């Protein structure tokens, strides 16, 4: 049975006992509202590690002032059920006070700031401070849970790239395991934010993955010019989807690329109604 822990000290104690007994520990960091995408991460952790901790924490420091922090779905009871189904040992669900102290202030706390060159593009361009919040909370979770492995979804490709770089730069002795995007039958990438979509908007949202699949189809036919691929992708996007970016990023240096040479991330972000959605595909 999955045990729910709300305090840092209690979790540290359990982890210490596990480590003493020689168990390996997997961490699945989440913001809750768990879905089948998260289930695949938990399952992978339970297969890979002796013990699995799922953190459920809607992290205030990664939301901008006009973002959806207050309306972000909070469904702890259901989350614990799902974590239990996929054999998590612990759900760690701290409060904001437990993680950051009373009346914390982002201007008066130590932040982990990922390199500007990784942050100044894709989502980081409009979500100022977002990746500082992510890197900071993930560092705290790593320090608290001391995992041997940590599992992250590839849907948040920029987040994953930044965390992999952070682990290397800051010498965390943790193996990051990237897990594939889970999609609905329609192709729509599964996300906690899909809950915000009406049935009609859901149909429009499918066009993000259609754009990516079309790009892959033309790339596989031999088209390597990102402008031409951009145009074919855009032609698939529903007219109600408001594009924020559709960028081609070289995996080696995380810079935009005009002609696709090696492994390339194609990342899309669009607003459908009031919901901001992201998706991506890798060309190689
Ligand atoms: O991907 C998420 O859900 C969050 O950004 C993470 C990694 C749990 C940090 O709050």
How many domain units?
2
In whole angstroms, how far apart are the ends? 42 Å
Strand order of the largest sheet: 1-4-3-2-5-6
Q: Looking at the structure, what is the overall shape? A: globular
**Level of helix content?**
25-40%
If you compute it from the alpha carbons, what radius of gyration comes out, rounded to the nearest whole angstrom? Answer: 19 Å
Q: By helix and strand content, what is the structural category?
A: alpha/beta
Give your account of this protein's structure:
This protein has 284 residues and is an alpha/beta fold. It folds into 2 domains: 3-179, HUPs (Rossmann fold, 3-Layer(aba) Sandwich), CATH 3.40.50; 192-278, Pantoate-beta-alanine ligase, C-terminal domain (Pantoate--beta-alanine Ligase, Chain: A,domain 2, 2-Layer Sandwich), CATH 3.30.1300.10. The chain has 10 helices and 9 strands. It has helices at residues 8-20, 36-48, 76-85, 96-100, 116-119, 123-126, 130-145, 157-169, 199-220, 226-234, and strands at residues 3-5, 25-30, 51-56, 90-92, 149-153, 175-179, 241-250, 264-272, 275-283. α2 links the parallel β2 and β3. α7 packs across α8 and α9 (199-220) runs antiparallel to α10 (226-234). The longest helix has 22 residues, at 199-220. It binds pantoate. Residues 29-31, 59, 62, 134, 137-138, 156, 159 line the site of pantoate.
